[in-house]
Every structure is written in structure tokens, then in C-alpha cells.
Design a protein that fits this description.
With about 350 residues, the chain is of the alpha/beta class. It contains eleven helices and eleven strands. The strands form three sheets. A six-stranded parallel β-sheet has the order 3-2-1-4-5-6, sandwiched between helices. A three-stranded antiparallel β-sheet has the order 9-10-11. A two-stranded antiparallel ribbon has the order 7-8. α2 packs parallel to α3. The longest helix is centred in the C-terminal third of the chain and has 26 residues. The N terminus is likely disordered. The site of 1,4-dihydronicotinamide adenine dinucleotide has 33 residues, from α5. GO terms for molecular function: L-malate dehydrogenase (NAD+) activity. It holds the Pfam family Ldh_1_N. It comes from Papaver somniferum (Opium poppy).
Length: about 350
């Protein structure tokens, strides 16, 4: 006796859906710079994410050790380590999502823009390979200065003919994480309930937290307190750089933030509705071509760029002040990519 093919196919699907503990679709995620200060804890957090089926850890050195270590954790994903440019193709092949924390971090006294010369070259190399080996992957750019590295990536992808503005993201989640934490502390509300949009860019005054839209409301906060919270959010990275006194910048909180954003991207790819995160993307909600704001994530990456919403006079002023710096960082990136 033979059962009809359609029955056997659908029952196989049904069985897979109901009885597999790994019902989420297969997703390959690469971390480029995986042996670094951010890369290692980010590799750990991605290994803990059940949406990942294959975790690809790439760096110019140190990845075999990180990969062997992380691979012993008894969670879903297979883990492979790749070292050196000769293995970059394999690391990227078939990726759904590529996270880039490769590059040098700040030391005390440095701005993110001081990293430009080294990191711009690294990002260029990595994005050239992404265009070749996984042109449809979502790209989460962590390497600083994000205000410039995202436009660099866009230009590299344009040259390769693979650019899709819906798939390129500057990771600004750490600014949101900080704004939530600092706000909850001042407003005396439960940090787990707090959300604060952060818009603009990812450096100094280009980081614009919209505390007037914080939920739950911090109605007890004075203008002076809002000004201080804004400044602390903008300088959060520098706070860590100084505390680490020459040993680098935020790595653990950044890995957490990177893992939160990557998880949101994967949920979007998998069709989970209403996934909204702030991110620095190609945008036309202002007259600046790349801009961070709330973005709805979906099967193709950016599903919708949400508007800025109602802002206080203080925030409107901050928005006008950040535009020239953000625009010049973008132009610097575009120029570098085209030279
Ligand atoms: P790190 O120096 O500890 O690690 C960087 C890693 O990148 C190293 O393992 C290095 O070998 C690797 N690397 C260098 N060149 C590479 C290449 N061509 N291909 C692949 N890997 C390469 O630095 P850390 O602390 O992990 O920071 C990494 C980047 O993330 C920095 O640019 C930093 O400014 C940025 N960052 C961004 C944040 C954000 O909010 N977007 C927050 C904190 C840091």
C-alpha cells in the first residue's frame, strides 16, 4: 500500500513542526571579529540563541580557540571557527546575518572618529567579501565610527551591485540600553519596563535620546535632570573607556546590545510581527541620508522606518545641532569608499 505523496509530505512537515525541539528555520549567523573583546561574549550570546542553527566565528587570529570553547555548550547551533582571509569565503557562505565587531576600540582621549583610518579599511575588506559570498545577508555593523562605517558599507555594496538598503544596519542598540538604564535609575521606575527611543547617529552629540517619549513617563524629572541624562547617554561609551583606562571600550554591554539587535533581526526574518528596534539605516525621515530611528523589522530586513514622533523643544534643538556632524561623518565614509 502506498500513501499519496501529498499526505506523506504534509505529515512530515507536521511532524517536524510539532515534534522537533528545533522548529525555528535554519539560520546561519557569522560574527566577524569574533575573537575580540566584543566578539567573544557576542559569540557566547549567539550560541545561546535558539534561532541560530549555524554559528560562524571569523577573525584574523584566535578563532579556533573561541570556536572550540563555545562549541561545547549544549545548545542548538553548530559552531565553526575561521581564521584569516583565506577562510573568509567559507565563513560567509550561506549566511542569513553577519555581525561585524571587527576593528580597534577607543582608548582614553580618543573620539570614535579617531578610529576611522584603521576601521574603515577593515570594514571595506569585510563588506567586499560579504557582497561576494553572502550578498543577501542582513549586516549588523558594530565597528566604529558607525556614522561612517555604515555609509562605507553601502558604497562598497553599491559598487558590487548588491546594495539593498533594507539589509544594512548600524547597531545603536547600546545607546538605547544605556538610555533605558540611566532613565530608570533617575525616574525610579522598573528598568525592565522602560523604553526610550534614541535617534540620530552613534557618536557624541549625534546620539539623541528622546526622553520625552520614554515609557513609562518620567514626569517627575526636571529639565536639568533630562539634560544630564542626555549628556550621560551621549558620553556613556567614554565613561567605560575611561574606567577601562586604556584597556578598550564597552565590550560586555555591547555584546549584550549586539545580541538583542541580532535576535530582533532573526525574529523579523522568521516573520515574527511587530519587531521594532532603533537602528542607524538609510533613511528619508530627515534631510540626512543615514539616520537612526525606530525601525520595524521583517522578512526582508527593514520593513518600515518609523517617524521621529513628537519631540520636546530641547530634543528639536538637539536634532538641529547633530545634523552637520552626522552629515560630515557620512560624507567622510562615502569619500573613503570611492577613493
Ligand atoms: P578588540 O580589539 O577587542 O577586538 C576586535 C577584533 O577584531 C580583534 O579580535 C581583531 O583581531 C579583529 N580584527 C581586526 N581586523 C580584522 C579583520 N580584518 N577581519 C576580522 N577581524 C579583524 O575590539 P572590541 O572592543 O571588540 O571593539 C570592536 C569594535 O566595536 C571597535 O571598532 C569599537 O569601537 C566598536 N564598538 C562599537 C560599539 C557600538 O555601540 N556600535 C560599542 C563598543 C565598541
Amino acid at each position: 500500500s502506498t500513501s499519496s505523496p501529498s499526505t506523506s509530505t504534509s505529515s512530515t512537515h507536521f511532524a517536524r513542526r510539532c515534534f522537533s525541539s528545533e522548529s525555528a528555520p535554519a539560520r546561519k549567523v557569522a560574527v566577524l571579529g569574533a575573537a575580540g573583546g566584543i566578539g567573544q561574549p557576542l559569540a557566547l550570546l549567539m550560541k545561546l540563541n535558539p534561532l541560530v542553527s549555524s554559528l560562524s566565528l571569523y577573525d584574523i587570529a584566535g578563532t579556533p580557540g573561541v570556536a572550540a570553547d563555545v562549541s561545547h555548550i549544549n545548545t542548538r547551533s553548530e559552531v565553526a571557527g575561521y581564521m584569516g582571509e583565506a577562510q573568509l569565503a567559507q565563513a560567509l557562505d550561506g549566511c542569513d546575518l553577519v555581525i561585524i565587531p571587527a576593528g580597534v576600540p577607543r582608548k582614553p582621549g580618543m573620539t570614535r572618529d579617531d578610529l576611522f583610518n584603521i576601521n574603515a579599511g577593515i570594514v571595506k575588506t569585510l563588506c567586499t567579501a560579504i557582497a561576494k559570498y553572502c550578498p543577501h545577508a542582513l549586516v549588523n555593523m558594530i565597528s566604529n565610527p558607525v556614522n561612517s562605517t555604515v555609509p562605507i558599507a553601502a558604497e562598497i555594496f553599491k559598487k558590487a551591485g548588491t546594495y539593498d538598503e533594507k539589509r544594512l544596519f548600524g547597531v545603536t542598540t547600546l545607546d538605547v540600553v544605556r538610555a533605558r538604564t540611566f532613565f530608570a535609575g533617575k525616574a525610579n521606575v522598573n528598568v525592565a519596563d522602560v523604553n526610550v527611543p534614541v535617534v540620530g547617529g552613534h557618536a557624541g552629540i549625534t546620539i539623541l535620546p528622546l526622553f520625552s517619549q520614554a515609557a513609562p513617563k518620567g514626569s517627575n524629572l526636571s529639565d536639568e535632570e533630562i539634560t544630564a541624562l542626555t549628556k550621560r547617554t551621549q558620553d556613556g561609551g567614554t565613561e567605560v573607556v575611561e574606567a577601562k583606562a586604556g584597556k578598550g571600550s564597552a565590550t560586555l554591554s555591547m555584546a549584550y546590545a549586539g545580541a538583542v539587535f541580532a535576535d530582533a533581526c532573526l525574529k523579523g526574518l522568521n516573520g515574527v510581527p511587530d519587531i521594532v528596534e532603533c537602528s542607524y539605516v538609510q533613511s528619508n525621515i530627515t534631510d540626512i541620508p543615514f539616520f537612526a530611528s525606530k525601525v520595524r523589522l521583517g522578512k526582508n530586513g527593514v520593513e518600515e522606518i518609523l517617524g521621529l514622533g513628537p519631540m520636546s523643544d530641547f530634543e528639536k534643538e538637539g536634532l538641529e545641532k547633530l545634523k552637520p556632524e552626522l552629515l560630515s561623518s557620512i560624507e567622510k565614509g562615502v569619500k573613503f569608499a570611492n577613493q
